[in-house]
Design goal:
The longest helix is centred in the last third of the chain and has 17 residues, at 219-235. 38% of the residues lie in helices and 23% in strands. It is of the alpha/beta class. A seven-stranded mixed beta sheet has the order 3-2-1-4-5-7-6. It is built from eleven helices and seven strands. The radius of gyration is 18 Å and the shape is globular.
């Protein structure tokens, strides 16, 4: 994705902040534990924290969390949901924290929006020696037949390569490299952890409507895609009647500063 396109997509969420907060899933607790396992201490930066979906899971894990988010509307939702969390305006490219001040930097469904050429040295700067950088992505389990069918119907604007188990590893593998910011890092590791979200046909369509590709779409085209998604979900035996569990996993890509 080109720089201008990435900026357009990454800046699209603010107008849908309330819907994002309502419909986006949290993160598997086992995934967060694995991401933080090598960290030397409890100080965690949730970078690109959005409305606080990952922040809440980190708080529940007992971490000492600071959240940083560039979009004022997303940040306002986070502060409303988690008033006890220190939440700062800032970005991956300009982190408002001192050198070596955190033991881990985590990003939930956000690292692909960072300008990593600038963000890498900033992340390395705030990480303590032995600290961990990890990206987390909630991905749909496309080994399930109806999920694979939904992917075909929805198209890449709603379900992209980072959004499915079959593709997320390849799609995210080069997002952070061992030589971040001149500091020494170990080799990246990837793993997935089972997760799920209770949805209905309507609420799953609303969830997919918060994807960046959908938010930047012309309204007529967006409604046409959402119509196909709703028709598929209301016509399928697994999703047509009341609540169902959306089969997901939380994928984690982590690297440790040496």
């Amino acid at each position: 994705m080109e720089q201008d396109e990435r900026l357009l997509h990454s800046s699209s969420f603010g107008a849908a902040a309330a819907a994002y907060a309502e419909h986006r899933p949290d993160y598997a607790q086992a995934a967060v534990r694995w991401a933080l396992d090598p960290a030397p201490g409890p100080r965690v930066l949730d970078l690109g924290a959005g409305t606080g979906k990952l922040t809440a899971t980190l708080v529940a894990s007992g971490a000492d969390v600071i959240a940083v988010e560039p979009d004022p509307e997303m940040l306002a939702e986070l502060r409303r949901a988690l008033p006890a969390v220190r939440a700062l305006a800032g970005s991956a490219e300009a982190i408002p924290l001192p050198d070596g001040s955190v033991d881990a930097v985590l990003a939930g469904n956000a690292m692909h929006w960072f300008d990593m050429a600038v963000a890498r040295p900033e992340i390395a700067r705030v990480l303590a020696p032995g600290g961990v950088l990890a990206g987390l992505w909630n991905v749909l389990d496309d080994r399930v037949d109806w999920i694979a069918g939904l992917e075909r119907v929805a198209g890449s604007a709603a379900i992209g390569p980072r959004d499915t188990l079959g593709n997320w590893r390849a799609a995210t593998a080069d997002l952070h490299l061992p030589g971040i910011g001149g500091a020494r890092f170990g080799l990246p590791e990837q793993d997935e952890f089972p997760h799920g979200q209770r949805r209905t046909a309507d609420s799953l369509a609303a969830t997919l409507a918060t994807r960046a590709g959908m938010l930047v779409m012309p309204e007529q085209e967006r409604q046409a895609v959402l119509g196909r998604i709703r028709a598929f979900l209301t016509g399928g035996p697994e999703t047509a009647h009341g609540e169902f569990t959306l089969p997901m996993l939380t994928g984690v890509l982590r690297v440790r500063r040496l």
